[in-house]
Amino acid sequence: MSAHSHLVDRYLAVWNEPDAEARAAAVASLFTPDATYTDPLAAVRGHQEITAVVTGVRDTFPGHVLRRHGIVDGHHDVVRFGWELVAAEGGDPVVVGFDVAVCDPDGRVRVVHGFLDKVPTPV
């Protein structure tokens, strides 16, 4: 497994962690203290704010998990990958997107740019 694939697996595990304390610890382990996460719905900085965004998604979509969608591609300190949010028991994805992450020299994520390709239609 490449370093980029391993990073993506750790990243997705953060989003899929059901325990709030373990999730916060995973964010602190994976992201630099001043890391930023930006997507069309959020623009946050630091462990606490990133953890809040992840928790918000988990609260909005209970029983769902993020999984890889497509290939992981990377070079130097940059990795891009697709993901989809699906019910834990399977089925069609509710949300589909891709992220671009930039890492520091130690391999910790310092910037994430997220893009949403499919989002639920409000009822």
UniProtKB/TrEMBL annotation:
Domain SnoaL-like intervals: 8-109
Alphabetized InterPro entries for the sequence: NTF2-like_dom_sf, SnoaL-like
Taxonomy, superkingdom: Bacteria
Pfam family, one: SnoaL_2
Official protein name in the record: SnoaL-like domain-containing protein
Organism: Micromonospora coxensis
